[in-house]
Amino acid sequence: MLNGDNCYTVSVSAPGKVILHGEHSVVYGKTAIAVSLGLRSSIVIKEVKTAGEPVVYIHLPCVGLQETIPLNPTVKALFNPPLCAGVTGKFTWKIPGKLDHDCHLRKVNEFLHMMKPNFDELPSNQKNSLRSFLYMYSGIFGSTNVQIKSMDISMGSELTIGAGTGSSASFAVCLAGALLRLLSLKAHPAAAFEPPQGFEPHEREAISAWAYNCERIMHGAPSGIDNETCTFGSVVSFKKGSKPRHLDLRLNLRVLLVDSRVSRETHALVVKVAGLRQRNMAAVDHIMDALDDVAHTATQILEKLSGGKCPADTDADYQHLAELWDMNHCLLASLGVSHPALETIRGFARARSLACKLTGAGGGGYAMILIPPSTPRTAVDSLTGQLLENGFRVTETCVGGPGVELEM
Ligand SMILES: Nc1ncnc2c1ncn2[C@@H]1O[C@H](COP(=O)(O)OP(=O)(O)O)[C@@H](O)[C@H]1O
Ligand SMILES: C[C@@](O)(CCOP(=O)(O)O)CC(=O)O
After folding, report:
1. Which of 15, 44, 60, 105 has its CA 20 to 30 A from that of 300?
2. Atom 5 of ligand 1: nearest residue by CA position
3. Is 2.30.30.100 the CATH number for 9-248?
4. Mutate to test the pocket of ligand 2, among 270, 277, 288, 331 (most ligand atoms within 8 A of CB)
5. What superkingdom heads the lineage (predicted)?
6. What confidence tens digit (pLDDT) does each residue in 37-47 have?
7. Same fold, 9-248 and 253-399
């Protein structure tokens, strides 16, 4: 959108993600399936007129951050980012995978320390958000000749931060989507007078690749499944050592996302499973194989459900899926990654014949309850009431919906 002052506004949203199948077994080379979550982050970038030097105003209430960044020193320190060693030519925003990530990130860190002498004392979520913004802004705009202006950036999220529902990827995808669209509008001003178009597949590729670089800032060596799921939505299948594969399914599975309110550390749970495997190699490997089979069969059912089958088949498919969710949970429980709170949640769901599984690392965190379309509303309401009475947090939402979207 272009206003009378020749300033653009861009609004973008992106979903979070949950792991549907393959948590823990993916560490041992099996397939994992992630789906987009109905809870989304959103961003509004507005170019604004300012009297003095150009600045970026950043409002990130989810991490309690409000910051003003001067643009002239940013341009001087961070524009014209370097290419990876051995790659010739000039870096452009179209090839984020060829950016010398470590060198660019080091410059971002040096700049932040210079701009904010107390940078090291900030909470790590604020540090990561600031690093990610500067990295991406200078990476994208620093390789073009478009004229930069002051801007105001606000970002919100329905996701809980740091709970394994992909808030960091959702944040990074929103940021990349909005910055790339702003760049495209500024580079092709005539497009601002045409009806806004959603993101094209090639734009999504670039968004996901920039978000992956941001995920590297937050997580070191991420698998790429989160940025892919938050960008493309729907279902993403992933196996260690290969690129995540987006399955273009039209799904809208209803779920209750239940927060057990038990905090857990992913790494500790991965180590626990490794210990169990060390002592019981053959048995644990059979469990991993079974988890892999569950992931593959569930994918086939999701493919059927997305094909718009007749209602009778849909019921049977949901029943089969529910069976697999239960089996998946029990296999994970046999690896020692459930928790009494998760078992309580499952008990409440089972009393209403609904399937429930933990999602992510387990040991606490979230459980998901599948709500097939035929489930009576009263059953969902009474289950929700019981969960809330017992101190759990409950969100009714969908999985498998759209990825990054331009908000009109
Ligand atoms: N809405 C948001 N605003 C600002 N930063 C965000 C937002 N959502 C996520 N982040 C960034 O992502 C980080 C969360 O990453 P992480 O701990 O991996 O959580 P998750 O498992 O939810 O992805 C936060 O520390 C913060 O830097
Ligand atoms: C346990 C594991 O398979 C999934 C971790 O999920 P989460 O980010 O803790 O929700 C670990 C991993 O894949 O790195």
Report:
1. 15
2. 129
3. no
4. 270
5. Eukaryota
6. 999 999 999 99
7. no
Ligand 1 pocket (Cβ < 6 Å) reads: 41, 60, 62-63, 125, 128-129, 155, 157, 161-168, 171, 218
3-state secondary structure 122-154: CCHHHHHHHHHHHHHHHHHHCCCCCCCCCEEEE
pLDDT at 192: 66
Paired tokens of 273: 């499973």
Give, in degrees to the nearest 5, the angle at Cα 12 between 83 and 130: 50
Active site residue 226: yes
Contacts for 311 with CB less than 8 Å, ≥ 6 apart:
none
Selecting from 1.10.3720.10, 3.90.550.10, 3.30.70.890, 3.50.50.60, what CATH number does the domain 253-399 have? 3.30.70.890
Rounded to two decimals, the ipTM of the complex is 0.95
Q: Residues of 277-290 as b/e, b for ≥16 C-beta within 10 angstroms?
A: beeeeeebeebbeb
Q: What is the CA(319)–ligand 1 centre distance, in A?
A: 35
DSSP 196: P
Got the DSSP string for 89-114?
A: S---TT-GGGB-HHHHHHHHHHHHHH
Tell which residue, 336, 397, 403, has the closest CA to residue 368.
397
Going from the Cα of 163 to the center of ligand 1, the distance in angstroms, rounded, reads 9
Taking 50 as the pLDDT cut, the residues of the chain under it are none
**pLDDT value for 308:** 55
Cα(247)–Cα(21) distance, rounded to whole angstroms?
Answer: 14
> What is the per-residue pLDDT for 221?
80
Residue nearest to atom 7 of ligand 1 (CA): 171
